[in-house]
Predict the 3D structure of the following.
Amino acid sequence: MKKVKDILTKKGAMIISISSDAKIIEALQLMQDCNVGSVVVMDHGQYRGILTERDYARKVILLDKNSSDTSVAEIMSTDLPGVELGSSIEVCMILMSERNIRYLPVVDNGEMIGIISSNDLIKATIQDHLETIEHLKNYIHA
């Protein structure tokens, strides 16, 4: 089975980030501009957390906060478990399922180097199954 490293190699490890003191409206604009559902929160090159659309829906909209007055630090998720490049897709899926989360920070030697989403894991799993099917077809026809 594939590893986190395989996912990052294919999709790239570009990190879209924002500072913790930025306003929510800025983070939402960044997510829209980059067509993503989350941004990494970093201060002075240090990982602080992740802000997701889910955070926004549950901690701003439902609590009737103002996106222009509320800072990213007030609603970001900070308790996400990190995974390493050698972590298997299965381990990531288990973590996401148990914690009911959609994103995992990827760390290497204590430094954040990327982020993977549940969608990334689904794509990798489908690709892995397609490759297995192709190998089996080739084996049968050989």
Summary: The radius of gyration is 17 Å. The CA atoms of residues 94 and 100 lie 10 Å apart. The chain has a mean pLDDT of 92. The first strand starts at residue 17 and ends at 18.
